[in-house]
Amino acid sequence: QVQLVEFGGGLVQPGGSLRLSCVAPGIVFSTFDMRWYRQAPGKQRELVAGIAAGGSTTYSESVKGRFTISRDNTKHTISLQMNSLKPEDTAAYYCNAWRDDFEGRYDYWGPGTQVTVSS
After folding, report:
1. pLDDT digits 0-9 by tens, 49-93
2. DSSP annotation of 31
3. Per residue in 24-51, pLDDT tens?
4. How many CA atoms lie within 13 A of 22 on its CB side?
5. What b/e sequence results for 18-49 when a residue is b if at least 16 CB atoms lie within 10 Å of its CB, and e otherwise?
6. Does the pLDDT value for residue 102 go beyond 90?
7. Which element (helix H / strand E) includes 37?
8. How far is C-alpha 67 from the chain's CA centre?
9. Backbone phi, then psi, for 45, in 5-degree steps?
10. 13 — phi, psi (to 5°)?
11. Pairing relation of β-strands 33-39 and 91-101?
12. CA 30 to each of CA 10, 13, 41: distance values in angstroms, whole numbers, following the listed order
């Protein structure tokens, strides 16, 4: 059973920064698209940022220009640098590893890490 693990959540003041990391052991990491999702209480889970196996990135409009996703294939790790944080960024953040090809569909998740933006 593949289990991703997120790190780096916490409490931060508005305007502050946090860096989330996710380790994905036990998979051929370089072949997976990696994504960060978040879910606030009472809301649906939403895609925040993604980085494809080839390195291209995508961001939701709400975080574009403030968040940066990156990956290190040698360490099986992705990171999410979050700057200029707002109270509306408060949510549980989840790491996702996704691959869908001729070998099958693979969809792995971490347990989540809480980010709270509050003064």
Report:
1. 999 999 999 999 999 999 999 999 999 999 999 999 999 999 999
2. G
3. 998 999 999 999 999 999 999 999 999 9
4. 29
5. bebbbbbeeeebeebbbbbbbeeeeeeeeebb
6. no
7. strand 33-39
8. 10
9. -65, 135
10. -80, 155
11. antiparallel
12. 28, 35, 33
Q: How many CA atoms lie within 13 A of 83 on its CB side?
A: 6
Secondary structure element (H or E) that encloses residue 5, with its range: strand 5-7
Report the pLDDT value the prediction gives residue 47, as an integer from 0 to 100.
98
Task: Report yes or no: 24 and 34 within 8 Å, Cβ to Cβ.
Answer: yes
Give the whole-angstrom CA distance, residue 20 versus residue 25: 17
Tokens 């969809």 -> residue: 107
Has residue 118 got a pLDDT over 90?
A: yes
